Amino acid sequence: MGLLALAEVERGARARLPAPIWDFIAGGSGEERTLAANLTQFGHYALRPRVLVDVSVCDPSVTLLGSPLRTPIGVAPMAYHRLVDPEGETATARAAGRTGTLLVAGIFASRSLEEIAAAATGPLWLQLYWLRRREVLAGLVERAEAAGYLALVLTVDAPRVGRRLRDLRNGFAVPSGVRAVNLDPELMAASHRGGAGASGIEDHAREQFDPALTWSDLAWLRARTRLPLVLKGILTAEDARLAAEHGADAVVVSNHGGRQLDGALTSLAALPEVVDALPPDFPVLFDGGVRTGTDIAVALALGARAVLVGRPVLWGLAVGGEDGAAEVLDLLGTELTHAMALLGRPRLRDLDRGALGAAAFAPPLTSRHPTGTTGGRTGLQR
Asked: What is the helix (H) or strand (E) element at residue 116, kind and residue range?
């Protein structure tokens, strides 16, 4: 593609995908205020470059829960990659392996855990939602361990799915040719229904997600696996401390890409308090609104060990399959290294809060999140 900026691949993906699928991927909850703020929050930080530093070699590599990565970048867990490419998650797995990035496969993947693992050449984690049927969770954990997955990522911010108005207006349902193949079809039936004023995704979550989950339940999962446990969806210092106390090995600061509680803290605003609440060696990951390598540098400077990227990977997959997804990940890694050089911080450990200035400027809304956030099909021109 000769990709120069993610906005280019975003436009290409929107042009290629049917409107309801684009809205499912691009949309947020409610009036999409948090979705928009995730993007603009990066503009509130100024960068403080140092000069006359040897930046002839910049090293963005990192080790995360024992796995070496070429860059501190991972693919966030997302459902149904086959909505945008026939190969789905196996193409994404190959792209992540080619670029030295982490892949977090989703519980609602449209390729089997074993197929994804066979395609992967880099570190692979599995994301879970807490289902009402615990035996299903236990079975997925066993399969993940047998297939070589290296960690479990439990999403903890979804006792129910946020009101995603685009999906409700579209009556969105997962197309019949795409399904969550790692779960029994009976468990997923509601996701294929949809209909006027309804969302198959929301109906399915209401039926299958356990809203009674509490901190004490984590002991059940801990007792069934030797894999590291990562909690995704932490936005407060209080919950960060509880995560560590209840045996989590890492956390992901995330507001679910603006798809859960509209008006929630942006992930970037929450990141410093979460980092400060945990021991220095406790891994904190980040997702939410990353669109450039400079965004990644800001998150790292605020204390993230690595960032997860979601929608842009699906854009790349939609436009160019495996190659398109790999180009998106390569571009972000290249931009990060470029930013490190211009900042005069050639190693990741040099990226600390001293690299950031006080609130500087918020880019105009139209520059990063074009106008209209009402949740309608054409409300967000992205």
From this structure: helix 113-119
Size (the chain), residues:
382
State the sign of the Cα–Cα–Cα–Cα dihedral 157, 270, 46, 365. Answer: positive
Say which amino acid occupies 373.
T
- Residues 46, 360 contacting (CB under 8 angstroms): yes
Q: Mutual orientation of helices 267-277 and 293-301 as an angle, nearest 10°?
A: 30
Are 62 and 374 a contacting pair, CB within 8 Å? no
Three-class SS state of 307: strand
What's the DSSP call for residue 76? P
3 state SS of 137: helix
| Whether residue 254 has pLDDT greater than 50 | yes
Torsion on CA atoms 274, 277, 282, 284, rounded to nearest 10: 0
pLDDT band at residue 197 using 50, 70 and 90 as cut-offs: confident
CATH 3.30.457.10 fits 6-368, yes or no: no
Given a cut of 80, whether residue 108 has pLDDT beyond it is: yes
Global pTM value:
0.92
Active-site annotation, residues: 256
* Among 299, 301, 297, residue whose Cα is nearest residue 353: 301
Pair 76, 309: CB distance under 8 Å: yes
- For 167-186, the pLDDT digits (tens) are 999 998 899 899 999 998 87
Task: Please give the structure tokens belonging to residue 248.
Answer: 């989590």
Rounded distance, CA 382 to CA 378, Å? 9
pLDDT at site 159: 93
Nearest to 80 by CA among 21, 130, 120: 21
- What percent of the chain lies above the pLDDT cut of 70? 92
pLDDT band at residue 31 under the 50/70/90 scheme:
very high
CA distance 93 to 91: 5
Please tell me the distance from the alpha carbon of residue 1 to that of residue 17, in angstroms, as a whole number: 17
Residues 196-231: b if buried by 16+ CB within 10 A, e if exposed: eebbbbbbbbeebbeeebeeeebeebbeebebbbbb
CA nearest neighbour of 356 among 290, 272, 284, 273: 272
pLDDT of residue 200: 64
